[in-house]
Each structure stands twice: as C-alpha cells, then as structure tokens.
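Listing S7. Sequence submitted for prediction.
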Amino acid sequence: MAIAIDPAERGERARKIFEEGYNCCQAVLLAFADVLEQGGAVSEELLKTLGAGFGGGFGRMREVCGAFSACTMVAGFIRPATTPGAEERKANYALVQELAETFKERNGGSIVCGELLGLRERRPDGPEPSARTAEYYRKRPCSEIVRNAATLLAEKMKEAA
C-alpha cells in the first residue's frame, strides 16, 4: 500500500515537528519517516540520529541549511545512486541541483543558514542550542523554511511516483 503524499500536509507536519524542538534537518526528515521506513532501510530513530548534527547549518556553524541538507538526503531515496555508475549519480545530482534552485526561490535566494538568517558573518554560534521561545520563533524564518523544504520534497516525491 502506497502512502499518500500531500505536499501541504507534509510541510505543516515538518513545521510542527520543528516547533516541538527538533532541529531543522530532523524535522524535515521526520516529516517523511513513514515513507522512508516503508522499505525497511531506515527507522524514525535513525532519521533523528542522522539529522542531529545538521541543525543550525552544520552544528550551528551557519553553513548549509539543515532543512536543505535533509532535502539532499531524501534525494537519495527519490533518485538513488547506490552504485558507482555515473548515470545514477548524474540523475541524483540533477535532482539535488533542482531542489537547490527551488529551495532558493522559496526561501530568500540561498541554501546557507547564515544568509537565510540575515547574519552578516557566517561564524559558529557555539554549540549551545538556542532556547525555543516565542521570541525565537518570531525572529527567525526557520519554521517557514522547514515547511517549505518538506513541501518541496513532497512535490518531488509525487512527481517521481
């Protein structure tokens, strides 16, 4: 039995997971846990583990956005490149580049966390996660970026089905 993929619902699911306290990468991955678990290759716990270090643009270093990192990971499930062959890799890389362009269009022109947050200098903020308060959510676009990333992935999954 195939799982229905509603892009708006997946986006909202990811936003809610992020606002429960998971990082941006984990939230996007977990929004698709049911789909990714189908083949038995991953579990929800593995997705949480894999995504743990990608929050805040790789451990709060403000590099590549964790939500986009999740898009890149899931691209491997949409267009797998599991052998050394160039054709699989080419298809996967083409999808990643397409995801990047659409992600940029929907999120202010970048895939870089520091740029998305409007930080002039991309410097590490230290390892201590920010407190998730109402002020945190008010001043950061992260909830919307996470929602957009999951919506985009769901659209690509529907196209590939």
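Caption to Listing S7: primary sequence and predicted structure tokens for the chain studied. The radius of gyration is 15 Å. The mean pLDDT is 93.
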